[in-house]
Amino acid sequence: MVTRESVCMRRLGEGKRSREVQFGRFLRNSKVTIEHLIEGWSERTTPAAVGRHVLAIQDTSEINFRTTAERRRGLGEIGKGVGRGVLLHAMLAVDAGNGSCLGLVAGRIWTRKGRVAIPHDQRPLAERESERWVCTGETAKQVLAGAAMVTIISDRESDFYAAWATLPGSNFHLITRVMHDRCLVDGKSLYGACADFACGGTKRIDLPARAPNRPARTATLELRFGQVALRRPRDAFHRHLPTSIPLTLIEVVETGCPKNAEPLHWRLLTTHEVTDGVDAWRIVGWYKHRWIIEQLFRLIKTQGLQLEDSQLETADRLIKLAAIAAHAAVVTLQLLQARDGRSAEPASTSFPDDEVAVLDALNVRLEGKTDLQKNPHPDRSLAWASWIIARLGGWDGYPSSKPPGPITFRHGLEHFRSIIIGWGLRDVCMP
Fold it and tell me: Within this chain, do residues 322 and 282 fall inside the same structural domain, yes or no?
């Protein structure tokens, strides 16, 4: 998938019917379970996270597959009931210091079996889809056990009391964007508490483009922060949880926003200790890394693997395909991040040792005689590997040239895989 930048079985099989059939049998095999596929996500992430402060960013994306009334493919409703597909919930590990993607941690992929008649707030957490936020966080404690610190970062859907009450632990923190104006222990509301906080400073940040009608811009932000204590909800489903939870509330408001743009306004809750404006801005900076998981979803869908175009006929196979596609998209994301040389990750983050040896041999042949034609990155780093793959994909290697993009890396990886096959035959005695 990485080399072909596709999930199409025919393309993956390189035009060979036998290969296409093999892939189909693999997805149909009852021993190939979604649980095992997702468990394999973290194989390289666990060692990469050792000793680091890891931002464990989690979010959910809808994968919308084309269906008709006669061909639903076993897919349930998504969105507001106007589409059919699967839901992909993923947690991505990112280095808090430099934003480097370390790999996937855990997640869940499913399709809805039908509409639930019982209202959301009348069901226990175990019977709600929102349980995935807590379950994935608990799995992260095992996968990232070797990390120096873990901070789970998530958007507004994960803002519910049970998550705040159960997930935090020693060196295991949360940063979540606020969805609900909750009641506090002192009788005030969460939103009302923001008005009592003093201004903690201003800062300018660069916002990436989100869509054609939301171009990139520089925003001026005003920050406020203070301590709050959430009061436990009064319904029966929360009685086993603590009566209150102390947290820090940070509010960031954009001032002087352009008339044609929606002003940025974040209310963030965190378990991290915040004593001054420096701490508060650090929390905001960590939360900004949440955008990385949006990039991953784009590589899975419209800007990469085009997963939503798959014509597989059954939901169970589409779910397995989505799990494999998520794993494949991470490799491309890591190479894209490493291309500018700011990443300090080793090449082993994306390539096994035997393939790193091949990259080493290729580097000698691809480098030119002048300094501008040399690989500028540390030996056997991910940035070093990214330079080699980009050169194989047709990039000229000059710093003044346009940086290589996903298509260049796709071509480079496809070429590299062919070289790997030949490398494996180097010691074969031909009759």
Answer: yes
| Amino acid (1-letter code) at residue 244 | S
Question: What is the span of the domain harbouring residue 77?
Answer: 9-336
- Among 151-165, 277-291, 295-309, 396-410, the minimum mean pLDDT is found in 396-410
CA distances from residue 328 to 46, 110, 153, 301 in whole angstroms, order as listed: 17, 19, 22, 12
C-beta of residue 326 within 8 angstroms of C-beta of residue 300: yes
Q: 329 with 346, same domain?
A: no
Phi–psi pair at 260, nearest 5 degrees: -90, 10
Tokens of 85: 């597909």
User: Is the Cβ–Cβ distance between 284 and 219 less than 8 Å?
Assistant: no
Residue finishing a domain among 336, 360, 376: 336
Report the alpha-carbon angle 99-104-105, nearest 5: 105
- The answer to whether residues 260 and 310 belong to one domain is yes
Q: Which residues pair with 221 in a beta bridge?
A: 203, 254
Q: Return the structure tokens found at 343.
A: 């990443």
Residue 428 confidence class, pLDDT cut points 50, 70, 90:
low
Task: Encode pLDDT of 109-118 as tens digits.
Answer: 999 988 887 8
Are the C-beta atoms of 47 and 55 separated by less than 8 Å? no
Residue closest to 94 by CA, chosen among 281, 268, 291: 291
Radius of gyration in angstroms for the set of CA atoms belonging to the chain, rounded to a whole number: 24
> How far, in Å, are 84, 140, 145, 381 from residue 95 at the CA level?
35, 15, 15, 15
Q: Tell me which amino acid residue 225 is.
A: F
pLDDT digits (tens, 9 = 90+) for 220-273: 999 999 999 999 998 888 889 999 999 999 999 998 888 888 888 999 999 999
Q: Are residues 347 and 329 part of one domain?
A: no
Which run of H or E residues covers position 418? Answer: helix 406-424
E strands in 146-233: 149-154, 172-177, 199-207, 217-231
Q: In this structure, is the dihedral angle defined by the CA atoms of residues 352, 354, 356 and 358, taken in order, positive or negative?
A: negative
Q: Are residues 311 and 397 in the same domain?
A: no
DSSP three-state, residue 377:
coil
| Angle ∠(204,57,231) on CA atoms, nearest 5 | 85
Cβ-in-10-Å burial (0-12, 13-18, 19+) of 128 comes to: middle
Helices in 271-402 by DSSP H: which ranges? Answer: 277-288, 291-300, 315-338, 353-366, 382-392
